[in-house]
Amino acid sequence: MQHTILAVGGSPRAGGNSDKLIAAAVEGASRLCPAEALHLRDYTFSACVGCEACRKAKTCAKFHDGMGLIYPQVESARGLILASPVHNYNVTAWIKAFFDRLYPYYNFGEQRPGEWSSRLAGQGRKAGLMAVAEQHPGDAGLQRTLESMRLPLEALGYEIVAELPVYGVFARGRVTQDTEVMAQAEALGQSLAQSLIAT
Question: CATH no. for residue 105?
């Protein structure tokens, strides 16, 4: 499989800090392998309604929307970068809906609760996470935001190779003035690419 990285931005604000971090990470990754950015706000898709039709269909059978364009990109990219600003102590609604709509990738036994597995597991998939907050170090919201991205990805079969918490930034695009943070975002992308190539 080609060592492709998909960077998914969960911010509703175009040109904001999450977008700048995504761009830097893609630049770093692109030095070693194909990488591209995808912003969830550019797609129209519904939140999961829990119909569970995907348990048999192995794809979302309820909605035919923007996620139908996103699924193939997720499947073809072994590397995934996620970036979200902190919204109300957690990920944005776009990121949450994105994760919920990845439910078709799970396999479940007949007994509930019972055994389950992910169809994305065992493929050497790896990920890097970035979260940006107005608050300063020690704020629980940013750590919760990272955890809310980390746990679903691990359950889906991704190894998290890098995380970047960014504190004290709010104004649109302000993060670009912090050269150290921008360098760290670039390094996150490069580190993910290196990790994929090494496996």
Answer: 3.40.50.360
Task: Kindly report the backbone phi and psi dihedral angles of residue 116, in degrees, each rounded to the nearest multiple of 5, phi listed first.
Answer: -150, 160
Q: Say if residue 34 is preceded by a cis peptide, omega within 30 of 0.
A: no
Quote the CA–CA distance of 105 and 125 in Å, as a whole number.
14
DSSP 14-75: TTSHHHHHHHHHHHHHHTTS-EEEEEGGGS--PPP----THHHHSS-SS--STHHHHHHHHH
pLDDT tens by residue, 152-180 = 999 999 999 999 999 999 899 999 999 99
The amino acid occupying position 138 is G
As for how many domains the chain has, the answer is 1
